[in-house]
Amino acid sequence: MISIKQRRAGVLVSLSSIVSKHSFECGDIYSLYPLCDWAKDIGFSIIQLLPLNDTGYGYSPYSAISAFAIDPLYISLYKLGLPYLSRKNQIVSIQNNPTRVRDLKIKYIKEFYLSHQKEAMKEALNFLEKQPWCYSYVSFRVLYETYEGKNWWEWPKEFQDPYNAKDKVFTEQREEALFWVYLQKIAFDQLNAVKLHLEDNGIFLKGDMPILTARNSCDVWEHPENFFLDLQAGAPPDHFSQTGQTWGFPVLNWEVLQKSHYSWWKERLLYLENFFHLYRIDHVIGMYRIWAIPKEDRTALKGWFHPQFGIETSEFLKVGINPKEMEERGLIHEFKPNHYIFYWDFWKEEGYQSLSEEMKARLFPLSQLHINEEEKHWRESGEAILEIFESFSSMVPCAEDLGSVPTFIRESLFERQMIGIDVVRWTKSFTTGEYIEEDHYRENAISVLSTHDTSLVMEWWNREGDVEPKLQFFFDRLGKPRPETEDQVLEGLLDFVFQTKSLFSIQLFQDLALGVSDVLQNPEKHRINYPGTPDHSNWTYRFPILIEDYVKDFKRNFTLRKLVHSSGRN
């Protein structure tokens, strides 16, 4: 097979947003066929997808009810030979309703399943035999439907025990259970066929592996020992948020996972390999350490980097400080017996400010006491985990290393030659704070204009920060005329990002929408996700043009082809 690791360009899509004339209401696995033809014509050789995991009654694929199962939303009715078409043959709204679409698809597939039930059940049983994870997922899914998405710990006691529940579901609701297996079997077959089709066309498919798992998920229900359920993951305060971020996901218990030789991760990666050639490791920093916060907290201020050694009671007493008194002042927290962590920015608290200078001089150094050993420990653990991951699969891992990445992690990823991500708007010189030139980008990275969590590049250009330095850097510096239209701005930015030294340059589909006036003039309407806002206001985006119509635009295709060709990425 040809080498993936060479200079390449690609496109990133939220699959449900790419509607084909053969789709039903939203994009699905079939949409990847016309997208493949277009990508090949332009010179793109990577198509990247956001996660396809089953989200249940939620919307975010990063908060799925299974780390394995594919959302039935993505099953192509057309590929199944079912004659159902969207209500309208033109896209009227740029928002879809995933719950409604999923329910309708399941209804139609159920009718199909019942029409040849004996054969379908046999197929389902064969799939179940090869994919043991599906047994617990389906048991969970049937109960999740029965209790209308209620948290598993609120179910009747008998179903909180997964082993008892699995027996009961597959005995008493066997037909229903095998139907859910059948849905996964169809999704598997369709996505696996796409991978082979793309390979035949010289295009690689890149998947996405969320690192965290929803608390109300099959994985946490079946293996609670793999998680610290009294904690939630998040991010410490930074310039984006003064109170940090709380994500609600339980924190992974790496020690327990290690005892089973990381079998859960191994199964996940081997399953993903049926569909993808490369994969994105979401929040790679979390493989080294993660910000852990008590489960009930609404802000991330009382969190700590997990795992942490902490400062022992004896180390406080050695310098004449009673840790209980400091805990009462709200400066530290006993996170395990006789071990304390210092709260983030504790020195700004009134409880610290009111201490005598002599007491501050004794207390403050304790907060830095084990930092070097901890960083060494975090680095070793993270590298061991990533090494194991690489041994499990032949897929090429790409690290999502955005945000405040500590130096020791940055150095570790560099030494491991992990492919990272550089977002143009944030890739600036550490010394001057200015944008950096194309040749100074990391080679072992993916250069992008936007991500699914940011504004589109045109919104950033128009509304975020001063436009004048951008004009000077992206146009004046290169002796290009200043752009007079949105199309010219976007073309100039695409030219820049493709010319970067980065190994890959993969752009969000909406950032390639040259000539699509609504995307260029109202980019804020075409975002996929606004982090920190309610789940149901996100993940419903639908591109305003059918993919078959979009790919016919000669002018756009010619421009993109020229940009990709001149950057040596085709």
Layout of secondary structure:
Layout: E1 8-13, H1 32-42, E2 46-49, H2 77-80, H3 98-115, H4 117-130, H5 133-146, H6 157-160, H7 162-172, H8 174-200, E3 204-209, H9 218-222, E4 227-228, E5 231-235, E6 245-246, E7 251-252, H10 254-259, H11 263-272, E8 278-281, E9 290-294, E10 304-306, E11 311-312, H12 313-318, H13 323-328, E12 332-336, E13 339-342, H14 350-353, H15 357-367, H16 371-392, E14 396-399, H17 407-415, E15 420-423, E16 445-448, H18 457-463, H19 467-474, H20 486-499, E17 504-508, H21 517-521, H22 547-550, H23 554-566
Parallel strand pairs: 1-2, 1-17, 2-3, 3-8, 8-14, 15-16, 16-17
Antiparallel strand pairs: 4-7, 5-6, 5-9, 9-10, 11-13, 12-13
Helix pairs in contact: 3-4, 4-8, 5-7, 5-8, 7-8, 16-17, 20-23
Keywords: Carbohydrate metabolism, Cytoplasm, Glycosyltransferase, Transferase
Subcellular location: Cytoplasm
Catalytic activity: Transfers a segment of a (1->4)-alpha-D-glucan to a new position in an acceptor, which may be glucose or a (1->4)-alpha-D-glucan
Q: Percent helix among the residues? A: 40-55%
Biggest sheet record? 8 strands, parallel
Q: Give the name of the CATH superfamily of the domain at 223-450.
A: Glycosidases
Average pLDDT figure: 96
Beta fraction? 5-15%
* SS class: alpha/beta
The strands making up the biggest β-sheet line up spatially as 14-8-3-2-1-17-16-15
CATH secondary-structure class of the domain at 223-450: Alpha Beta
Tell me the CATH architecture of the domain at 223-450.
Answer: Alpha-Beta Barrel
- Poorly predicted runs are none
